[in-house]
Amino acid sequence: MITSTRSLTRRFLPSARTAAALALALPLTVGTAACSTPPSGNVAPYAVAAQRDPAFQSAFRHGFADVDGVRMHYVTGGSGTPVVLIHGWPQTWYGWWPIMPALAEKHTVYAIDLPGLGDSTGSPTGYDKATLARYVHRLVADRLGVRDARVVGHDFGAAVAFQYASQFPGDTATSTCRSPDPRSTRPCTAR
């Protein structure tokens, strides 16, 4: 029996829709798994990222706070005016690591892991920007006592920072967004 190439293709190759779904699912699965910090020896999972940087370890500390059923992770250090750093997707606080020591020279720095990313655990009531901004505010204002935050967001975090400033203008000194739109080359700043 001779089978045409066309029928073999239909039988063994996935449809374009299935192939597209698989192509999207793989990076999302791998990317999400990469967002949590892997354990390493006797080092706490949340501290692994900076374990080879003793200067960073002595200047910054990791903290956790429960916010409406979500255990939120943050890294803080320095002293001065408070700066809250909100990472993009699918990133963690560690995306801010290179600039945190310089910021800490004049500011108290808070780099957070958004709910569902990094070492923050639990399920928020929603993953939309407005809801995440409320979780960040509950962490920063209610748990950490910061009422005059300079909120800085990158990528998806820029939209969360914008929502934070919009919903809580009395607790926001400034809001700076970096790359909220992939086509943008300019930062947006609001007072």
Structure commentary:
The chain is built from six helices and seven strands. The chain has 191 residues and is of the alpha/beta class. It folds into two domains: 5-34; 51-190, Alpha/Beta hydrolase fold, catalytic domain (Rossmann fold), CATH 3.40.50.1820. Helix 5 packs across helix 6 (156-167).
Structure in a nutshell:
The chain is an alpha/beta fold and 191 residues long.
> How many domains is the backbone divided into?
2
Q: What is the 3D form?
A: globular
> Could you tell me the number of beta strands?
7
Q: Biggest sheet: strands, sense, closure?
A: 7 strands, mixed
Report the radius of gyration as a whole number of Å.
Answer: 21 Å
With strands numbered from the N-terminus, the spatial order across the biggest sheet is 1-2-4-3-5-6-7
CATH topology of the largest domain: Rossmann fold
Q: What's the level 1 CATH class of the largest domain?
A: Alpha Beta
CATH architecture of the largest domain: 3-Layer(aba) Sandwich
The computed structural class is alpha/beta
Low confidence ranges: 24-40
Proportion of helical residues? 25-40%
List SSEs in N-to-C order.
HHHEEEHEHEHEE
- Helix count from the secondary structure assignment: 6
Distance between the termini: 76 Å
Mean pLDDT equals: 81
CATH superfamily of the largest domain: Alpha/Beta hydrolase fold, catalytic domain
* Portion in strands: 15-25%
